[in-house]
Amino acid sequence: MRPLISYLRVSTAKQKKSGLGIDAQRATMSAFANANGFEIVGEFVEFETGKGSDALDRRPQLAAALAKAKRLGCAVGVAKLDRLSRDVHFVSGLMVHRVPFIVAELGADADPFMLHLFAALAEKERALISSRTKAALVEASKRVAVVGQKKRPDFKKLGNPNLEAARETANAVRVKSADEFAASVLPAIAEIQSTGATTLRAIAHALNRRGFKTPRGSEWAAMSVKNVLARAA
User: What is the distance between the alpha carbons of residues 64 and 59, in angstroms, rounded to a whole number?
Assistant: First the structure.
């Protein structure tokens, strides 16, 4: 049995209070260790955000996990890559410590190059979602402000133009974002299909193992794969 340090993290005060997520991560790490010949010899639990250039300084439990892993000459394991960070620079900085990381959802054989790649994809996806959301809110606010300067009409007869303008803008941005997201994930789906995974469920499982998230940040399911393929078609 190879030793393994387990690192668990949640990033909101609500999750810290309820314990939401920690038990699921612990179960994932335990199942992964049993299936791959590891023995968890230490567990470190963090309740802190993963954002910011000083993220490691604000995560003493991760620093402690790295130190213990270095003493034992073993790896640090996490359930998902985002439990370390979605920031590719942060993930790169961790490699300087010369402690190997194992991500359960990516498998025991995922090397540092793969971790960098998936971190870069996650960072790009997060940035795209954030920029689209901000653009939609700004555009909707502009339209509401313009309408608000005009004489207030009879809403009972005409409806509320402020809300209608906001809805139209939000819907247009949502459709455009969905189209762009479908186009961005299609190459990954094609590569997965080339490996022999042809069913929607198998493709969804492969996307989840590789760290991809849906536009809402959730796990992939057969229906979400079907929707992407239908939109692309």
Answer: 9
Q: Transcribe 204-218 into DSSP letters.
A: HHHHHHTT---TTS-
Least confident of 74-78, 106-110, 190-194, 213-217: 106-110
- pLDDT score of 132: 61
* CA triple 124-128-130, angle to 5 deg: 115
> In whole angstroms, what is the distance from residue 111 CA to residue 101 CA?
8
pLDDT digits (tens, 9 = 90+) for 27-74: 999 999 999 999 999 999 998 765 555 566 778 998 899 999 999 999
Instruction: Quote the tokens at residue 102.
Output: 């194992």
Helix (H/G/I), strand (E/B), else coil: 180? helix
d(CA 112, CA 115): 5
Average pLDDT over residues 123-134: 58
Residue 211 backbone class (left: φ over 0; alpha: ψ -120 to 50; beta: rest): left
Q: How many residues does the chain have?
A: 233
Helices (H), the chain: 13-18, 22-36, 60-72, 88-95, 112-149, 155-158, 161-194, 200-209, 222-232
User: Using CA of residue 81, residue 82, residue 85, residue 87, what is the dihedral sign?
Assistant: positive
For position 154, what pLDDT does the model report? 56
